[in-house]
Amino acid sequence: MRNLFSRLMLLVVAALVIDVGLDSLGKGRGEDSVWLMGLGAASAVAFTLAGMEALVRRPVSRLLRVAERLRRGDFTARAKPAAEAVEFARLGDALNALAAAQQQRETALRDALGSADLTRAALVESEARLHLALTAADVSVYEIDVSHDRVWLDHRAAVLSRGLLPAGVWLARGDARWHRWLAGIHPADRAARAAALRALLAGTAQSLVSTYRFRDPAGGWRWVSQRGAVVSHASGGAPLRIVGVMHDVTEQFDRAAALEREVADRTVALRDSERRFRGIFDSVFQITGLLDRDGAVLELNRSALDFLGGTDADYIGRPFWDIGQWRNKKRAVAKLKERLAAAAAGDFVRHETHMFDRAGRLATFDFSLKPVRDETGAVTLLVAEARDITERAGLQAKLVQAQKMEAVGQLTGGVAHDFNNLLQALSGNLDLIQRAAETGGDARLLRLVANAQRATARGARLTQQLLAFSRRQNLRPEPVLAGDLFQEMSELLRRAAGETVTVRTLAVPDLWHCEVDAAQFESALLNLAINARDAMPDGGELTVSADNAVLNEARATALEVPPGEYVHVTVTDSGTGIAPEHLPRLFEPFFTTKEVGKGTGLGLPMVHGFVRQSGGAVSIASMPGEGTTVSLFLPRAVAPVRAESARPVLTMPLPAPRGGGINILLVEDDPEVREAMRCSLGDAGHRVLTAADGSEAVAILRDGEDLDLLLCDLMLPGDLGGLDVADTARRCRPGLRILIASGYGADAPDGFGDYEMIAKPVSHAELLHRVAAQPAAAAA
After folding, report:
1. Is-contact 660 411, C-beta < 8 A?
2. Which of 28, 36, 51, 327 could cross-link with 354 by S-S, CB 3.0 to 4.6 Å?
3. How far apart are CA 560 and CA 576, in angstroms?
4. Over 422-474, what HEC string results?
């Protein structure tokens, strides 16, 4: 553009010079010399134009000086006409304008060159910073010339490739060094890297991102992260140049791999810990759950799921009070919410509650809530535990019942003892009155005495019932065949049941013998028959049956007897039945479902006491309107059955004649009983010494009195009881006969040893019979 402009300027100047020269020559010369002068002028103009072109090409200052001389007409010696001066002035103005434009261009060029220098300096500084950043980042810069199918890498490529690739060299696709590099890429990573590059070249991806492994010359694998982007496109949009970076990330991958291994190891440890926790959590016998602070269920163990039924999904996330069937639900839920709030506030709470399991069984639980705190002390979780204490509560109730029964038994035993002493005093005095009335022939007095003696006998039977309940009666167990007893008692049972009740007795043919006191067994059956009769006021059916039973561990434990073989006797009626709430109290003394005045409440307690004292058990099953079944489990007899009944037949002997009596030491603390027995024995011709307590009796024994019999009460006041007195008598008088009297049906807690016992109340005839039988027994 500059040369073209200069030539145009030369042409303009030449045209002006020729025009001026021709004009001047035409005016001062002839026509013949005009051509020759024109040629000379043309030559001069040509040379002038050449010089001017050279001058134009020179710096502007020289061009301006030449233009100034031309403007002044200083290229010839001749004087210049005015017209010529005008033309040269016009040329000068043009040249001035040209010089000004050129100067502007030069100024602009200098400014552009200054800006370029600044830009070049900024670019150098930016390149320096980029180089420093790339060096610090330890990355290699690469460039792909797509149009020429070659690759260039910077000096860090040699370090990255461990010498496989050169630095600062364009490598063509066919270069063996580039192929060695590509061959070193891990086979598993080649396809992914190539696919990423193809996507960038095809325009389907905005950038190249690839991570792959390559074989280190030392034999190991190193990880490379490669990134790139298109920086130049052809007119059709195809990529021409791709610039990117590569970075060795082996250490990062090694650290990541180590971290992954650590995480994997910790995961395995956590999984093992979780498995151990879950194993312990699920193997805990009691119901356990984890709750959040609001009481929502987070975890439930296997015991809880077995109790409730269902799976975790049925309960996780639900409020704890909503997952169970509570007894008295409204009150139970309100109490539970109150306890949950207290536990969320940091308190340990515990109370007893009741829930139904999936089968509808009511269970009693010892329930507790314990808060779990984080490192700051804030409550984050609640541990709910429910320990099934149904069995323990049942045993505790049984224990309380047993303690109550034991206390009542001790009370009734003491009452029976004292009442028997009263009856003994009454019976003894009535016997004396009867003998006096017989001597005087007072018939009316004899009738009154007989009535009083019958009342005394009823009182004696009542005390026997009390003693049977308290298990203090004196039993004489022997092998008995229950079926034979049924037959013997069939008529008595029918009379006891009444005419409107049908009585049936059943026994299996091979029924075992049981070890019981036959008289007490008969009394127990009679009591059960009477109870059955009262339960069937409009008549019905009473069945007494017996079979053999073998109790396993579970059944025996429920009945509180040892496992083994038992004779099972049942008494079943078709009566009104018993309400469920009354069943637990049936064996309590004086408890009865009968109307006032129609029962003492001692029948079933007497049966219970007799059977338990015999080593057996009693159970009752009943439903209102469906009758009642009482089951007796009596131990099978081990000893053989005697051919004849062992039950004694008491025959009352006549009183011993006067003068044939013996010397008796009577020890009795009750003065009325002592006086009545002394009179009875004295009237029979015996010489009787009396003592009110053990100390007085021992003093008499040691005084050397002539004695044939020691008749001593079991229960004496003071430090010496009846057995202590008897032991002292045996030591100091080895041949002395000893008879122990007791108001208890059963002996003392430690037994009577080998001493003979006589039960109070005792009649005058029985007392004399036992005293008279003593010498014969000793002789035998």
Report:
1. no
2. 327
3. 28
4. HHHHHHHHHHHHHHHHHHHCCHHHHHHHHHHHHHHHHHHHHHHHHHHHCCCCC
What backbone torsions phi and psi does residue 741 show, to the nearest 5 degrees? -105, 140
Asked if 549 contacts 510 with a C-beta cutoff of 8 angstroms, the reply is no
Whole-angstrom CA distances from 402 to 399, 587, 613 are 5, 11, 14
pLDDT at position 665: 92
Q: Which residues of 664-686 are buried (b: 16+ CB within 10 A; e: fewer)?
A: bbbbbbbeebbbbbbbbbebbeb
Site of tokens 């008879």: 739
| Segment 441-466 mean pLDDT | 69
d(CA 351, CA 361): 20
Token pair listed for 461? 């039977």
The lowest-confidence range among 226-235, 271-280, 352-361, 402-411 is: 402-411
The residue type of 727 is D
Task: Tell me which residue of 205, 248, 213 sits closest to 229, measured CA to CA.
Answer: 205
| Contact of 697 with 691, CB cutoff 8 Å | yes
pLDDT at 753: 62
Cα 6 from Cα 202, distance rounded (Å): 51
Q: What is the pLDDT of residue 646?
A: 38
Q: Which run of H or of E encompasses 19?
A: helix 2-28
What residue type is assigned to position 399 of the chain?
A: L
Helices marked H in 471-517: 482-497
Residue 356, beta-bridge partner list: 325, 362
Q: Which amino acid is at 49?
A: L
Partners of 549 in beta bridges:
566
Half-sphere exposure at residue 259, Cβ-oriented, CA atoms within 13 angstroms: 6
Within 13 Å of residue 166, how many CA atoms lie on the same side as its CB? Answer: 9
How many whole angstroms separate alpha carbon 130 and alpha carbon 387?
A: 73
Q: Which of 384, 383, 351 is nearest to 366 (CA)?
A: 351
- Find the mean pLDDT for residues 1-7: 51
At 597-642, the pLDDT tens digits run: 444 445 677 787 778 888 888 888 888 888 888 888 988 887 655 5
Using CA atoms, how far apart are residues 633 and 614, in angstroms rounded to an integer? 10
- CB atoms < 10 A from the CB of 57, how many? 12
What residue type is 532 in one-letter code?
A
Among candidate residues 506, 526, 424, the one with its CA nearest the CA of residue 465:
526
Q: Which residues contact 778 (CB under 8 A, 6 or more apart)?
A: 737
In the DSSP assignment, the letter for residue 700 is: H
What CA–CA distances, in Å, run from 778 to 649, 688, 741?
20, 20, 18
For residues 244 and 196, what is the distance between their CA atoms, to the nearest angstrom?
13
The 8-class DSSP code of residue 636 comes to B
3-state helix, strand, coil in the chain (%, to 5): 50, 20, 30
What's 138's DSSP letter? T
Closest by Cα among 758, 757, 707, 749 to 728: 707
* Termini Cα distance of the chain: 170
Task: Note the pTM of the prediction, 2 decimals.
Answer: 0.39
Q: In what order do the strands lie in the sheet with 379-388?
A: 297-300, 287-291, 379-388, 362-373, 349-356, 325-326
